[in-house]
Hints:
This protein is of the alpha/beta class. Helices cover 25% and strands 25% of the residues.
Amino acid sequence: MPAGDSQFVVEAKHYEKQPNRKIKCVLCPRECVIDDRERGYCGVRENRGGTYYTLVHSRVCAAHVDPVEKKPFFHFHPGTLAFSIATAGCNVNCKMCQNWEISQVRPEQVESRYLPPREIAALAKQNDCRSIAYTYSEPVIFFEYVLDAADAGRAAGVKSAVVSGGYIQQKPLTELCRHVDAIKVDLKAFSQKFYADIVNGELKPVLEALVTIRKLGTWNEIVYLVVPTLNDGDQEFRGMAKWIKGNLGVDVPVHFSRFQPQYLLKNLPPTPLGTLERAKAICDAEGLQFVYLGNVPSHPAEKTYCPKCRRVVVDRTGFLIRGLNLVKGRCRYCQQPIPGVWG
Length: 343
Ligand code: SF4
């Protein structure tokens, strides 16, 4: 390792020691078994003499101030800013990844700077951010840093919002939920085939993660990137809507997002608007109450409607909030409670 990198190296959480200085990482469902001096699949965690280390604590390769709507979170402090950070690496390899330049590389392959937790919290405050967002790559693989930054944020009055693929084991997820305030899960499809062929992951642990997040009461929204021909069938949308209704409830916000050709899926077209509208119509018909369309600016499905009186309670265009008709988390017109973190 180049000199000076030791500041990023911290003993990892959630691993088991094995004979012959091997270790088994139990942070994500991949459960990599790693020899001495080797790294796991994600490329950011390394076995050194039978002790496992993260190499990306405080090693930030992307930092931006974004509207929280860009994550997207629509029911979590609308109209506020999120101090958004990432480290290199990921525990899956989605063929449609938007951020593959940082997610599919090792930490030594991208420029990074040292931003310890207290500094992140201070920068968030200086930039008038209501939250820190862990995003762009995959926060599961910089788990230890997320926990420490979230604690520093909490001490400074800044919340934490995680943007994740949800490919994490139950024990670390339970720990994560205690430290952060919101988790957005990218549900990449509702078929194991897509997860096997396009993501190099598994659907089941992601569904289990969604149930746990809900059960523990951490605010959760779901994003589904609709990829033409690969995860855009009526049956798949309906199956997902029924699963959400039966396992999470009808009031979880679901965002259908438009795919743009990139990385290893440049051969496919952008998602037609009609496909997104069909996905929403199927979920609406199944009774889901907050179904949004993303990457289609000025579409009426960007707004939040009261499920009781159908009036607009959050008037949103793109990332801009034009009006907030909520009083103490209730619809201003009919007093129906609207789920979310609004304060
Ligand atoms: S977090 Fe990384 S090292 Fe651990 S099991 Fe997942 S991919 Fe493997």
